[in-house]
Amino acid sequence: MTVLTTARPTTARPAPPSTAHIALARVGVELRLFARERQQVVFSFAYPVVMMVVFGSVLGGDVLPGGVPFPQYFLAGIAATGIMLTSFQAVGTAIADEREAGQLERLQLLGTPPAAYFAGKAGQVLVTTAAQLALLLPVARYGYDVPLPVDLGHWLTFLWVAALGALAGTVLGIAVSALPGSASSLTTSISAFAIVLQFFSGVFFAFPELPGWMQQVAAVFPLKWLTQGMRSAFLPEQAAAFEVAGGWEHGMTALVLVAWVIIGVMVCVRTFRWRRADG
């Protein structure tokens, strides 16, 4: 006698979400987390505007070599330092806080790929940077008569410089978050380094007027090139003659910023950790 058996249908398990899908979801999560930090939001958006108002009011009548009004020259620097604030500074301190609070460990347990986490931070920074600049530029234009980029070419320069600068700052912020120490000590170190770098990079002063050794040190870091790229978008073409190299050096600017993005990604891959070093 033959016994017939009926095979039970197997239920296929749904495929896990892809890294790209998780990364896109992380962008939304990161934006919501950023919006909840009210002090960080206010500081990120108010700092460039306040600096523009203060320096524009105090030094608004000064004219730099080439006949460029100080507010017009300064706008490039404050836009660049605002990007550094929302990327390098904010990302580095946020990740340190998240790691210390155990949030990163929970993400690891949920199977979040590091690449998706990095992409979420980068997406949040790009959106935040766009909003920050959208607030700063009208203040400079209508408050201090600073001309905005004159044509499509200058606007495109403004966009690619801002995007590369934001990406470089993001990956470097992720990289420095792996340094040893508590979140509070790391926040202090990142903030101090950022302030010093602003002075070295020609954010508050005309870069050619800085001592030669400062210029050489600044040329190693991306903020100097981000600031110079911003000047090329906001200043008239004849102002390029007053740069140290006698030109805007767009090729070098792109090369340095891309190099820092690559270096930052390599460092992140090798050093990023979900848990505290003492954990």
Could you tell me the strand content as a percent range? Answer: under 5%
The gyration radius over C-alpha positions equals 23 Å
The residue fraction in helices comes out at: 55-70%
Helix vs. strand class = mainly alpha
Order of helices and strands: HHEEHHHHHHHH
Instruction: State the distance separating the first and last CA atoms.
Output: 65 Å
Mean pLDDT: 89
Strand order of the largest sheet: 1-2
Q: Unreliable stretches, pLDDT < 50, 5 or more residues?
A: none
Shape: elongated
E-strand count: 2
Write the layout of secondary structure elements.
Layout (H helix, E strand, L loop, with lengths): L18 H18 L1 H22 L3 E2 L3 E2 H31 L2 H7 L4 H31 L7 H25 L6 H18 L11 H7 L3 H13 L15 H22 L8
Antiparallel strand pairs: 1-2
Helix pairs in contact: 1-5, 2-3, 2-5, 3-5, 3-6, 3-7, 3-9, 5-6, 6-9, 6-10, 9-10
Question: What's a concise summary of this model?
Answer:
The protein is an all-alpha fold.
Structure, described:
With 279 residues, the protein is mainly α. It has 10 helices and 2 strands. The protein has helices spanning 19-36, 38-59, 70-100, 103-109, 114-144, 152-176, 183-200, 212-218, 222-234, 250-271; strands spanning 63-64, 68-69. Strands 1-2 form a two-stranded antiparallel sheet. A hairpin with a 3-residue loop joins strand 1 (63-64) and strand 2. Helix 1 packs across helix 5, helix 3 packs parallel to helix 6 and helix 6 packs parallel to helix 10 (250-271). The longest helix is centred in the first third of the chain and has 31 residues, at 70-100.
